[in-house]
Design goal:
Shape: elongated
Strand order of the largest sheet: 1-2
Structural class: alpha+beta
Number of helices: 1
Radius of gyration: 15 Å
Helix content: 10-25%
Mean pLDDT: 79
Largest sheet: 2 strands, antiparallel
Strand content: 15-25%
């Protein structure tokens, strides 16, 4: 679990991330806490066969799905 905390004299922003939203080559992929503000740093991987032939279903997540998966308690 991790948090991103931004505090100013007039407001406070807190984003709690509870886990990875995906796994790439056996490594967990985490969202940036600033994604909750609309600033997304998404990792994009180059597709290989069989995805390039259209034989694999869509596995890319939408930004909303990434935030939902990153902030769920299991």
């Amino acid at each position: 679990m991790g948090i991103t905390l931004i505090v100013t004299p007039k407001w406070m922003f807190l984003a709690a991330l509870t886990g990875p939203y995906a796994e790439q080559q056996g490594m967990p992929v985490y969202a940036d806490g600033l994604a909750y503000t609309g600033i997304f740093n998404l990792q994009v991987s180059q597709k290989g066969w069989p995805a390039t032939a259209g034989l694999v279903e869509k596995t890319e997540l939408t930004p909303y799905e990434i935030l939902e998966a990153s902030s769920k308690f299991k």
